């Protein structure tokens, strides 16, 4: 059922048809982008679960299969992400290998990753944020180095991705936030560190973990509204003034008072 739901939304992006959904737009946009880049024309109706793709034009349906491949690829990235995270935390190769094997043979993870769903995309960004946070912590002895900035910025990008797919991404924001508060508290208690240097640490985290994620999160909505410029099933959730901007809507180009 969910593949029918989100696959249809991927088609909406390809056809530039406006719709409304309770989740932020990033995950559906990535599904639509994967289909668009692979040649999918957005014609598959996604009417009910279990509809066979083989009943329709193969060239168009090839893109739907590659949407599945895209989700499967992101789901498969969880294995190396988990391996590297545990290896960094424990410094134990057996522990990291055990973690990787547990995920490889996890039926739920395999099942979620083989369909057009938001879950593998969400988990990709969640695990990416955790891995980046752990890697950034390992660079604590060389702050403001290239690797430190890279992992700190990548943490912010991953936070924006997690929040941009589903609001449940707030939990990893909370995790990174608590880790950052602990880190800053530890730095504040370091008497060998000047207040100026502490201010630089604080500013770096504000820029990479607050400003950057918010900017990227907002940008996903800007792209969402720029792409979806045709009338669709989501028109009724918005004001008459907004509907007047949608091509094909009854109110298109009508002058609507503020």
Automatic annotation (TrEMBL):
InterPro entries hit by this protein: ArnT-like_N, PMT-like
Localisation: Endomembrane system
GO molecular function: mannosyltransferase activity
GO cellular component, one term: endomembrane system
ArnT-like N-terminal domain ranges (all copies): 1-229
Alphabetized UniProt keyword annotations: Glycosyltransferase, Membrane, Transferase, Transmembrane, Transmembrane helix
KW S-adenosyl-L-methionine (keyword) present: no
UniProt cross-references to Pfam families, sorted A to Z: PMT
Keyword Transmembrane listed: yes
Domain of life per record: Eukaryota
Topology versus the membrane: Multi-pass membrane protein
Pathway in which the depicted protein is active: Protein modification; protein glycosylation
Gene Ontology BP terms: protein O-linked glycosylation
Main location: membrane
TM region positions: 66-86, 92-109, 116-134, 149-182, 202-227
Family: Belongs to the glycosyltransferase 39 family.
The protein's name: Protein O-mannosyl-transferase 2
Organism name: Certhia familiaris (Eurasian treecreeper)
Annotated gene: Pomt2
